Amino acid sequence: MNETDLLILDAAERLMSDFCTTEAVARHEAGVVSAELAEAVMDSGLPMAWVPEHFGGVGGSLTLGFDLIRKSASYALPLPLAETLVANLLLAVSGLSVPGGWAALGYDGGALPVSERGEVDGTIEMASGAKEASVIVVPVLEKGYLRIASFAPSTIDLEHRRNLAGEVRTRVILRSAIPSQLSGRIKTISEDGVRQFCALVRAAQIAGALDRVSVLTAAYVAERKQFGRALGKFQAIQHRIADIAGETALAGAAVQQATRMLGACEHPLLGDHSTAISIATAKVLAGEAARKVPQDAHQAHGAMGFSYEYPLQHFTRRVWNWREEFGSEFYWSERIGFMIKDEVQAGPESSVFGLAWDFATR
Amino acid sequence: MAGIRFNFPAPEIDQSINELRNEVRAFLHEEIRGGGFVPVADCWCAGVDRNFSRKLGQKGWIGVTWPRKYGGQELSALHRYVITEELLAVGAPVHAHWIADRQSGPLILASGTEDMKRNILPRIAAGECFVALGLSEPEAGSDLASVKTRARKVDGGWEITGTKLWSSGAQHCQYMTVLARTSDPVEGSRHEGLTQFLVPLDSRGVTISGIRDMSGVEHFNESHFESVFVADDSVLGQVGEGWKQITSELALERSGPERFLSTFIAVERVLEQASRDLTDREATVLGGIVARVRALRAMSLGVAALLEEGKSPDVEAALVKDLGTRFEQDVVERLREFGPILWKRGSGDLLDDVMADSLLRQPSFTLRGGTNEVLKGIVARGIGLR
């Protein structure tokens, strides 16, 4: 990581610790948007981190963006920063103009078809970021080729719903809808590439949220006293804390590895075999950690962690949503398995021995 | 979380690393095809083959990080990592030289006399000299500081008396590193007064007897030392500093690929057997296993990179071992979906053999080198809870 990236991350950290308080997160869920927080994040330029400088962005590295996403999740940032980063990147890579402001991701794992006349039909069940957004970015398919479309929210039907964590997810209904911008066929983006990229975004968010869960839990058991001593003095509790630390660190390491690998790709949205393995690994481990860590963390917190007022639940509810989005650990385990299966079918039988290890070291 | 890094540096993979990996992998597959060795589960603790160790020595793949003048290749820790993980992944019989390559060699290099370095290290690197660990005792398991073996100062050296237990492979070894008390424990500082000695196992007064484990193998030993004389220059490092030396070796010992690959050969055999008949369901099980191995590898390499940077990632290393050893146990259970484990080794079926051995050997994974309960305690201390 270079010095500029570190400075940007530091600034983001300060900004969020100042404005993204537990109270702000709770108020946001109740429908009261913190204008202070939203303005601070927007003014910081963070949502433009992945937009090249000649498009008016920061031109930051892929790693920087993923680190920002992880960091923002460790504050349960109730704003579509991650979605805006991805949507802006899609616009920029396709040569479309990036309007600035919040942007929504009109994609939940499957791209809608676009007709030759440029009309889009169909329903996106779970767009994210659409409540705040001034633009909804939708990857669409024309005869197997990916194009990027963008819509002004006022021109299409939106049904907002709230997920387990109170984050807005939106059903976007498009009926022969004409995009306000539509790119040509983009050879450097594929549908699976977008799916992989978004899966890594959610994995990074899970890693960030679990970073915070670990810190909260360690601090709570050091503080809270029962039977005359701190909970953290009990071996049973210590072992839970160690389990939390282990699963969190492991998921974090997998996310980092995938981010580094993707950062080295010329076209990170193209999605090939090698990116799929690393990203699948990250989402599997994040998904597994999203089950185990909240179990241990809530147990260690007792009733306090179950109360709305205490911050823990903002993070555990989020990871329970994020693990499902863009493919669960089950889906991505299957993806790796099917890649192995494909190679078994394609190669000579004598090359099967050693194939599992080959997949482990690619 | 205080005291724990959730960020790991990336290992520096250059072309020489990839070339070495390909060379080692090709050699091992050729050896297997030619009958040079039969892959075994838990190979680094149960697969003894002196010829194979010598072959690796001739290849220059033992002691690779050591100075050339002591038989090494002056390669990086990452080069060693790649060699060892490739060996583990195919279940190569590496037990004979494993401890000497991983632990005793580096210990001699750091704390041994010039004589030891010149005489012993080249033989270890050649795959001809093996070293056992003399740590545990009948009354000292997890609580290692309570060792009772005594070393008494005598004219020109030390006289060692005591019993070491569970020393893997001692019957194949020429030396043992023995942890002994050189002064009485003091209240509040029981880690003081311990010293490590390099004891030639052909010394007068040494008796070694095998202990059969539940998998039917006799690789454990009870080693008895009855007034065994060793010269002054057998002391490794400083008298009384043995505990510090042992604990500083631990990060490396705990975070290596042997902490999550002990049963990986079973994964390969299962895949090989299923081959084109691999079902979707089985493929998904394999996918889940491969994902976790990849993550453990990323974390383990991250700890290796921290060590290279001169950091002391003790807590992170303990986490790798806790997660990794539970995983290599879990692998056996996940693979049962492909078929039952019913028969003892010796059926002649390559898959049955590694599955049976993997299951019968797995209780030791979460015990050896510090139980997982001890490891979790280290993590808790690192976080500041104790």
Give me the CATH architecture of the largest domain in chain B, please.
Answer: Up-down Bundle
Element order of chain A: H for helix, E for strand: HHHHHEEEEEEEEHEEHHHHHH
Biggest β-sheet of chain A, characterized? Answer: 5 strands, mixed
The most extensive contact between chains is: A-B, 62 and 59 residues
Instruction: State the helical fraction of chain A.
Output: 40-55%
Gyration radius of chain A, rounded? 21 Å
What is the level 1 CATH name of the largest domain in chain B? Mainly Alpha
Reading off the top of the CATH hierarchy, the class of the largest domain in chain A is best stated as Mainly Beta
- For the residues shown, what is the average pLDDT of chain A? 96
For the record, what is the CATH homologous superfamily label of the largest domain in chain B?
Answer: Butyryl-CoA Dehydrogenase, subunit A, domain 3
Tertiary shape of chain B:
globular
Secondary structure category of chain A: alpha+beta
Gross CATH architecture of the largest domain in chain A: Beta Barrel
Mean pLDDT of chain B: 94
- How much β-strand is present in the residues of chain B? 5-15%
The number of distinct β-strands of chain A equals: 10
Elements of chain B, N to C (H/E): HHHHHHHEEEEEEEEHHHHHH
